Amino acid sequence: SDVKRLLLDKRGLTDSISRTVAQTGVIDRRCKQLQGDLLQSVEHTRMAKEDAESARKEQVLTTLLWMREEDVMQGTIKRLQNEIFSMDAARAALESGQDELQRRLEAVESELE
Fold it and tell me: Where are the alpha helices (DSSP H) in the chain?
């Protein structure tokens, strides 16, 4: 009976670890996507700034429009940075939980021996 319980505990812990690994993979892919979005936003802002600086010589209105676009892009960059930070925190929490599950699995395996 104890062996059956331990085997069930082991299977449950192994399943939990597998789910945690899968969730970590999802978070890692999302972080990579967000980092790509962030780099794209930074590049877009840089290009918009260069375009606006050359256009300023021709038209003040273009500069005013760029300033508005830069504000929007800075907001986007900040939001993406916050999302990456949140994803990193979620990944750390999952990894911590996975470590605990791994310790419990090792304890169950030790009892089985």
Answer: 2-56, 60-112
